[in-house]
Design goal:
Radius of gyration: 24 Å
Strand content: over 45%
Distance between the termini: 29 Å
Number of helices: 4
Strand order of the largest sheet: 25-28-30-31-29
Number of strands: 34
Largest sheet: 5 strands, parallel, barrel
Helix content: under 10%
C-alpha cells in the first residue's frame, strides 16, 4: 500500500529529526521559571521559548516540580521537555488564558504556523480544567464574562484545552501524561507530519473532554497510547471542505470513552482518506468502538481497520451517511459567493479481525461524566450498523474475521420493530440528525442492520446471542450486492429461525 509506505517514510524522518533537534538544552530555571506550584510562569516560559527559537532551537527542560502557567505559544524549533516528576499546571484563573483571534479557541499551549516543535518526556500537563471551568461559570453568572452558558456550562471554545496546534509542520509529542483539560484535550488542526507516541491521557474531568482531535491533518502517526476520555477517544474531524484528514496510521493503542472510540466526525466537511487503524482495544465505552460518519459532505475512502478488541462497549461498528451541513460557501476571485452542496461518499472500507462484547447494562456507568441515558423504550441495538441514505449510498464495505457477542433477551412487549415491508419502510431516514447508533431507538436486528448500500461483504463472521432473541441476526434493507460468506448465528432456542432477512436486497451467498 503506497500510502502506508509514505507513513513509514515519515516515521523514519521524524526519528531522524528528533535525534538532532535536541542539540541544545536550556533548563527552565535559567529563565526564572519557578517550580513552586504557585508562581504564574506564563511570561517567563514565553520569554524562554522566544529566546530558544531565536537562537536556533532546542529543548526547554523542566525538572521535577510544579510549574503554573496560562497561555503560552510554542515557536519554531522548540521542544518542551518534561522530566519525570515535572508538571505543567494550568492556572485555575480563566483570565490567564488567551482565546486566539485566528484559531478562535482557548488553550494552555498554542502553536500557530510553526515548524519542528514538540512536547516530550515523562512529565505531565495537568489543565486542572474542572476547577478552571467552574471558576468561569462563576464569572459568567456575575456578568464578568460573556458566554452562552448552555446547560450551565461555558462554550467549549472559551474553555482552555491543554494543547492546540494549527497549521504546523514536523510535530512530535511523545511520552507525556495529559490530564484534565477544561475542553478538548489536544488538537492538531491542518498540521503536516504529526508524530504522537506513548501518551497517557486522563481526560474525563469535564464536558467535551476528547482524548485526541486530529482536524484536517496529513501524514499522522499515533501509536502506543492509553487514553481514558469523557468524550471521543481518537476523534478525526474535517472542519473545512477544502482540506481533509489523510495518510494516517493508528496502532497499538488502548482507549475508554463515555462517547466513541475511533471516530470520523462528527464535523465532516472535507473527508478522511488513506487510513490504517490496527491493534486497538476499547473498553467500557458508551457508544461505538468504531464510527465513521459522512454527514456534512465528507469523502471517506481507502480505510483499513485491522485488529479491534471491543469489550463492554455499547456498539461495535457504526458506519453512517447523512446530510446535515453539506452546503459549501465558496468565495470567488471577484468577491462573490457561490453556494453548492457537496456530494459525500464512503467506499473501500475494510474492517477485519474484530472481537467484541456488547453488554446489557450502561457501559460507562460510574464515571465522572457519563454518556446520556438513552431515550427509551428500546432493546439493545445491533452490534453493527451500516446505514446510508437513499441519495448517498455506501459501497465496497468488507467485514471479515469478526465475532460479536451480544446479551440477547430482547423483549417485543417492551419495544418492537417488525421485519415486514411496512415496518421496515417505516424506519425513518433521520438524515439530518446527529449520527449515533441509537438514534432510531428500536431496530429490527440483533447482530447487524444494513441499509442503502452497495457491495457489502460479510466473511467469516460469528454473531452470538447469550439469550433468545425475538429479532433476526441480520436485516438488510435496500442492499445491492450483499455477500454472505461463512457467517454463523449462535442463539439459544433458535432452531429453524430465519436469521437473515433481506428486503429489496440482492443477496449473494
Amino acid at each position: 500500500m503506497r500510502k502506508l509506505k509514505t507513513i513509514f517514510s515519515f516515521v523514519l524522518a521524524i526519528l531522524l529529526f528528533t535525534g538532532t533537534m535536541y542539540a541544545t538544552d536550556y533548563p527552565a530555571s535559567d529563565f526564572g521559571i519557578k517550580a513552586d506550584g504557585r508562581t504564574l510562569n506564563s511570561a517567563s516560559i514565553q520569554a524562554a521559548i522566544d529566546f530558544i527559537s531565536t537562537n536556533g532551537g532546542g529543548r526547554l527542560v523542566f525538572g521535577p516540580g510544579n510549574y503554573v502557567t496560562g497561555t503560552i505559544y510554542l515557536k519554531d524549533g522548540v521542544t518542551l521537555h518534561l522530566e519525570s516528576g515535572a508538571t505543567l499546571l494550568g492556572s485555575t484563573n480563566p483570565w490567564d488564558y488567551v482565546k486566539d483571534p485566528y484559531i478562535k479557541w482557548t488553550s494552555m499551549i498554542f502553536a500557530l504556523r510553526q515548524k519542528n516543535i514538540g512536547i516530550t518526556g515523562e512529565g505531565t500537563i495537568n489543565g486542572r480544567g474542572f476547577t478552571t471551568a467552574n471558576n468561569m461559570v462563576d464569572y459568567i453568572h456575575r456578568g464578568l464574562f460573556e458566554d452562552p452558558l448552555k446547560l450551565d456550562r461555558p462554550n467549549e471554545v472559551n474553555r482552555p484545552q491543554n494543547i492546540y496546534f494549527r497549521e504546523c509542520e514536523e510535530v512530535t509529542v511523545t511520552g507525556i501524561t495529559l490530564r484534565d483539560p477544561a475542553s478538548w484535550n489536544q488538537t492538531y488542526d491542518q498540521c503536516r507530519n504529526v508524530y504522537v507516541e506513548g501518551l497517557t491521557v486522563d481526560s474525563k474531568s469535564y464536558w467535551n473532554n476528547d482524548g485526541i482531535d486530529i482536524v484536517d491533518c496529513e501524514d499522522v502517526v499515533i501509536r502506543n497510547c492509553y487514553i481514558d476520555a469523557a468524550d471521543d477517544v481518537f476523534c478525526f474531524k474535517s472542519h473545512s471542505a477544502d482540506h481533509m484528514c489523510r495518510n494516517v496510521l493508528i496502532e497499538n493503542c488502548v482507549g475508554r470513552s463515555s462517547a466513541n472510540g475511533v471516530k470520523f466526525g462528527t464535523v465532516s466537511k472535507g473527508g478522511f482518506k488513506d487510513f490504517v487503524i490496527r491493534n486497538i482495544t476499547m473498553f467500557d465505552t458508551f457508544r461505538s468502538a468504531v464510527t465513521f460518519a459522512a454527514v456534512d459532505g465528507a469523502e471517506i475512502e481507502n480505510i483499513l481497520v485491522d485488529g479491534i478488541r471491543s469489550l463492554h462497549t455499547g456498539n461495535v461498528i457504526f458506519l453512517r451517511m447523512g446530510e446535515r451541513w453539506s452546503t459549501v460557501r465558496k468565495t470567488n476571485p471577484d468577491g462573490s459567493v457561490t453556494e453548492y452542496r457537496k456530494q459525500p461518499y464512503m467506499k473501500n472500507v475494510v474492517i477485519r479481525n474484530v472481537y467484541a462484547e456488547v453488554p446489557a447494562d450502561k457501559p460507562d456507568a460510574g464515571y465522572n461524566y457519563e454518556g446520556p441515558v438513552e431515550d427509551l423504550p428500546r432493546n439493545v441495538s445491533p452490534a453493527i450498523i451500516i446505514a446510508g441514505i437513499p441519495q448517498y449510498r455506501m459501497e465496497g464495505i468488507v467485514l471479515e474475521n469478526i465475532e460479536v457477542v451480544v446479551p440477547g433477551g430482547s423483549n417485543p412487549l417492551y419495544a418492537f420493530r417488525g421485519t415486514d415491508p411496512e415496518s421496515l419502510d417505516g424506519i425513518p431516514e433521520m438524515e439530518s440528525y446527529y449520527p449515533e447508533f441509537s438514534q432510531w431507538k428500536e431496530l429490527p436486528a440483533w447482530g447487524a442492520y444494513l441499509r442503502h448500500a452497495d457491495d457489502i461483504t460479510f466473511r467469516n463472521v460469528v454473531f452470538r446471542a447469550e439469550k433468545p432473541e425475538y429479532r433476526p441476526a441480520i436485516v438488510a434493507d435496500d442492499i445491492d450486492g450483499l455477500r454472505i460468506e461463512e457467517v454463523k448465528y449462535i442463539e439459544p432456542e433458535s432452531s429453524g429461525k430465519d436469521q437473515m432477512i433481506g428486503y429489496k436486497t440482492n443477496i449473494k451467498q
